[in-house]
Each structure stands twice: as C-alpha cells, then as structure tokens.
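Lab notebook, bench 4. The sequencing result for the construct came back, and we need a structural model before the next group meeting so we can plan mutations. Quick request posted to the team channel:

Model the 3D structure of this chain.
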Amino acid sequence: MAKLGKRTRAAREAFAGKEELSVQDAVALIKANSNAKFDETVEIAMNLGVDTRHADQMVRGVVGLPNGTGKDVRVAVFARGAKADEAKEAGADIVGAEDLMETIQGGTIEFDRCIATPDMMPIVGRLGKILGPRNLMPNPKVGTVTMDVKQAVEAAKGGEVQFKAEKGGVVHAGVGKASFDEAKLIENIRAFVSAVAKAKPTGAKGTYMKKISLSSTMGPGVTVDVSEAASE
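Done. Here's the predicted structure in token form:
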C-alpha cells in the first residue's frame, strides 16, 4: 500500500466525518485544503436517478457559469468561407473543414470544445466514434451546431459548460478554480445545479437528484445537502 503524503493525510483528516454540508461550508473546506502547487479545479459530481440507456432519461445541456470556469478553453470550429473568418475573428483556436477532419482522424485533438455550422455536419459526422466518447461532438441541442459562430465561440470562451449524464447517471463538471473567492464558487455551483435540475427528462422517475459531491482536483470529495444546493 502506497504511503500517503503529509498533505494528503491532513486533507483526509480535515474531511473525515463531514458530509451533507451546505454549499458554503463545503466550498470553505475545499478551499482551506487545496494546497497543490497549481490552481486546482473545483469539481462537482451529481448522481441522478436516471437510466441513460433510455432516450427519455438522457440528461444533457449547457450552462453559462456567472463567474466563468477559470480555464482557458481551446475551441475548434468546422466552417468555410465567411463563417470560417467569423470564427477566427471571434477567437477560435482552430478553424477548418476536411483538413481539420483529417487532423482529428490522425489522432490530434488539441481542443476542448468543437463547434460546426450545419453544412459541415456531413464531414463532422464521420468523426462520431472519435469525438462522441470525448463529449466533443457538436450538437444543436447545446448550441454547438449553429450559424451563429461568433456567439458560440464567445460563449465557449466565456465560461459556458456543457454537461451530459454518463453511464450510471453521473454528471460532472469543473465549476471554477480554488483561487476563486467563496461567493463566486458558490454562485457557479448553484447555477450548475439549477441547470441540471431544469434539464430533468420526462422519463425520470422517483428522486431525480440523489447525491451531490464537491472536490478539488487533488483533494478528497465531500457531499453536500441536495435540497440546500438546489435552493435559489
């Protein structure tokens, strides 16, 4: 068994026996014990009462975090002509068509968000097996298949977060950095929880939000009170 470092032991002791905290108390605990040599991401994981094998229980959506993510998001855009120029002017990191498809097929994926104009989808569709498992496939439901390329790129750069329930009904995302002040993290967390609540599918039965946990990149997780987290 690997020996735990002093920092890890101290963090685990600080979190021991603490659960179902308020969002404020959980954020304070995480910030107090986030002492890695880099600015850790504060992450949320939500266990939902859905079975994603059924189409009417799929949960997916997008939310603009009021205080951003603190992350430099690299954006790729599939577009041609004027729309390609629009994407570049809006700040897209990579813009292309067949050439971008070939780059991705070759195993190079140097972006965190992928946007496409509708006419590009026959090309993008060939990348489903590569982009799909990475949750990078453009989708009109979350605004990444659009003619409004400028707005989509700016939203992605400005702190918009996509979410999708994975196997087991778990939704997770980064909701800010440990360096954010408590009020900004709390605001981001509540905005994310609210967006997931509003995305409740018609086929969901029983308790929808079962468990919510918060953690930092290198730290232990702590559960928060679901009803308190979901309150406005």
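The mean pLDDT is 92.
Will bring this to the meeting.
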